[in-house]
Design a protein that fits this description.
Oligomer: single chain
Radius of gyration: 24 Å
Order of helices and strands: HHHH
Strand content: under 5%
Number of helices: 4
Largest sheet: none
Length: about 100
């Protein structure tokens, strides 16, 4: 799962659900008991992790989309006003204006 994310840089809901499922399934192995209980804990942990992390992953995806829309709108506004895009560029321009006075 991790190699898929690093190779093609995909961050979606299923990656978050898979990570939560793998984490809780591994945590199920820590609980004491026989081999039968370990198998039960891993299965329940995987299902619980996916059920909890899928909505969290969806919420994260929507928040990232909203944030990206806001940054795109802000960069379009700056392009129209002719202002620099970065904080460093703005600082350099203010310095040049102060020196030219």
């Amino acid at each position: 799962m991790i190699s898929r994310i690093t190779k093609i840089r995909v961050h979606d809901v299923f990656n978050v659900a898979g990570a939560g499922s793998a984490t809780t399934a591994t945590s199920g192995l820590i609980l004491p008991g026989s081999l039968k209980w370990h198998a039960r804990n891993v299965t329940l942990g995987a299902a619980f992790g996916a059920a909890v992390c899928f909505p969290l992953g969806w919420l994260h995806l929507k928040l990232v989309e909203i944030a990206n829309e806001g940054s795109l709108a802000a960069s379009r506004d700056m392009d129209q006003m002719g202002e620099p895009r970065s904080g460093v560029g703005a600082a350099i321009e203010r310095l040049e204006q102060n020196l030219s006075k």
